Amino acid sequence: LTVQVNKPGAAVNKNMYGLFFEDINFAADGGLYPELVKNKSFEIDARLIGWKALQGAANLDTYAVRNEQPISTSNSHYVRLTTRNGASGEAGIENEGFRGMGVKAGGECTLSFYARRGAGSINGVTASLVGEKGEDLGQVALTGFTNEWKQYTAVLKSSSTHNKAHLKLVLNGTGTVDLDVVSLFPKDTWNKRPNGLRTDLVQLLKDMKPGFLRFPGGCIVEGRTLSERYQWKETIGDVAARLPMINRWNMEFKHRSTPDYYQSFGLGFFEYFQLSEDIGAEPLPILNVGMACQFNSGELAPMGTASTKGGPNAPAAAPHDHAADDPSLDVFIQDALDLIEFANGPASSPWGARRAAMGHPAPFNLKMLGIGNEQWGPQYLERYEPFAKAVKAKYPQIEIVSSAGPSPDGDLFDKASKRLGELKAEYVDEHYYAKADWFRQNVGRYDNYARTGPKIFAGEYAAQSGAIGSQDNKNTWDCAISEAAFMTGLERNADVVGMASYAPLFAHVDAWQWTPDMIWFDNLNSYGSPSYYVQKMYALNKGTKVLPVTMPAGAKNGTDNLFASAVADEPTGEVVMKLVNYSTSPRPVSINLAGAKGLGKTGRAQTMASADLQTQNSLTEPKKLAPQESTFAVKGATLTYTLAPNSFTVLRVPAK
Ligand code: AHR
């Protein structure tokens, strides 16, 4: 191979490798967002999802969601409990959490709830953490209930570590009591924030040094129907007043039943921006373009202000009544303009003031906005055009990511580029979920892509070892090494490929709908799949300029399953090479670092290798396959290096 060290080409986008976040597989509630109580405000369809009465309600007369004289109109449901006359034993309720509650020995949680006492003598509640076998892990009593709504808080500490604990609330006394907004929130959150995020999961993200964070999806942006679309304005402000909504991924299947999947929006748009800032990633919100998910209703918002109830001049829908509006496209466009003001406007602007009130007076410095997800065809273009024009007219500096279809074997140029190019979209968002060999065979996908149109955002991709969403679709090394091979093609084409992210990002081992996924977790532990480490190796070694690589005579990238790309990393003065040997034999390579004026004596290698392509990581072996570091001697301008069987190697050599 020859790497032309003295001929640096295109700049690598400094945000090239990033993250795709969607609330799928319990990624938010039950995952990154560590609230332990499910349906804390009893607002999920005014049902008791997540709750059950102690002792099978043997000691309760009433156990029901009510709405008379609620805490507020935005939080209009609560649970009413009335003890049964003459009953003995525990009366109360318990919450199951999200497939249980993860608690650590000595770990403290803030318990809080609102209570209002009715007739009788109930003057408090004893709250306990209970283990899977009924073990008592810790208790605290909260007393002093009155006949007005009042908030009660305490610290609840666990005596031991449990993955599937639950919270029990036992009434002290007999009579009636109303409870609402019951929260159990770990104190140990990222940056120790009261409404903060789960530390191990944020750490895995931060360790990747991601260039961007795309949120909140994915299909949940679209919703199954327009009334179930993601509406960012309903996810900011007081956490207790954010009303839950059914998740697009709420579904019942044999192996992956999650009929209890709702979005609490405790992790809302403010928290997404804050997370982006915390991990050093550019925020990339994706907004609904006025189209519901094409795989479901495919419902369309009427163009302009044609709707009966929506539109900028129409009276506001009842707060949080997701189903009440029937918005026209103008409503969606206004949401986008308001979002930019929320992120970037001065604290004196209406939406900037909302951000400031949440504790972030400084702007979030939003630079990019996605319009639509996986939508295409005339209906998309019809809506995209006025949407993009309005955004650009007010905020010309905002870069727009447009949508494109999932396109493993589609015609890239027809689908994505032509009209969106005319409409001056900065990016088209390509998605590919395909077999591992597709990734190796398509390493040249962008070699002949038009250099003048929108750039590519490879916004969702993952190699599949089985059917999507099936149990046997595993995060194998075969998938990850094939992604690494494909990514040499992204890197070589950095002049047109500006961003890339694996998808989906997270999955709870007991509550997933989609496989494979980059990071897996249970209620306490987490691990990165081999694909996580491939993404991380690219992100940490992205360099600054592409260097031309010539393969051996007669070969191109991928011939004989050898894949290569190279970049210069100007700040460190190193040449960085990515090499994939997809073969069962060790492969000696000689690499001519052509045109280098001087080379350092020692190079650094990071290698992921496993002869067994089926190797996976797991909760019990989280780093079975992870990058190994070593050094090697550099003797002259031609480097000889033996690539391990089935390996992905990054070589860094100091070079002038
Ligand atoms: O990543 C899972 C889903 O795949 C996303 O929600 C959607 O955009 C794509 O179809």
Automatic annotation (TrEMBL):
InterPro entries: Alpha-L-AF_C, ASD1_cat, GH, Glyco_hydro_b, Glycosyl_Hydrolase_51
Presence of the UniProt keyword Lyase in the record: no
Keyword Hydrolase: yes
UniProt-annotated stretches for the region Disordered: 303-323
E.C. no: 3.2.1.55
Limits of the Alpha-L-arabinofuranosidase C-terminal domain: 459-647
One Pfam family per UniProt: Alpha-L-AF_C
Catalysed reactions, as listed in the record: Hydrolysis of terminal non-reducing alpha-L-arabinofuranoside residues in alpha-L-arabinosides
Keywords tagged on the record: Glycoprotein, Hydrolase, Signal
Record family assignment: Belongs to the glycosyl hydrolase 51 family.
Name of the protein in its database record: non-reducing end alpha-L-arabinofuranosidase
Gene source species: Hymenobacter bucti
